[in-house]
């Protein structure tokens, strides 16, 4: 891991599909001194996906933990693009 490239991983801490994945990845990357992002504590899986779900079905998204969250999504995109600007320029 010590020779791994920097990583931008946008994980929701409330992700029911990959429980604990962000924490395990965080520990591994930190141990390997790999530059990386942090997880988002208040969102779940697919928080960056704005599917344009009809209003009546948004309840299903929230219950299953698959809903879009604009503040976290915008921050994640900002971090992704900033990382690209730093590491790919």
UniProtKB/TrEMBL annotation:
Gene3D superfamilies hit by this protein: alpha/beta hydrolase
One example GO MF annotation: hydrolase activity
Source domain of life: Bacteria
Record-annotated Dienelactone hydrolase domain positions: 4-85
Pfam family, one: DLH
Record's protein name: Dienelactone hydrolase domain-containing protein
Lineage of origin: Bacteria, Bacillati, Actinomycetota, Actinomycetes, Mycobacteriales
């Amino acid at each position: 891991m010590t020779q791994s490239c920097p990583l931008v991983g946008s994980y929701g801490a409330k992700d029911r599909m990959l429980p604990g994945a962000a924490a395990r990845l965080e520990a591994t990357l930190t141990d390997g001194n790999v530059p990386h992002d942090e997880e988002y504590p208040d969102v779940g899986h697919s928080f960056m996906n704005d599917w344009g779900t009809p209003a009546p079905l948004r309840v299903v998204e929230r219950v299953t933990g698959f809903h879009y969250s604009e503040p976290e999504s915008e921050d994640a995109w900002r971090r992704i693009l900033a990382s690209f600007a730093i590491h790919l320029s």
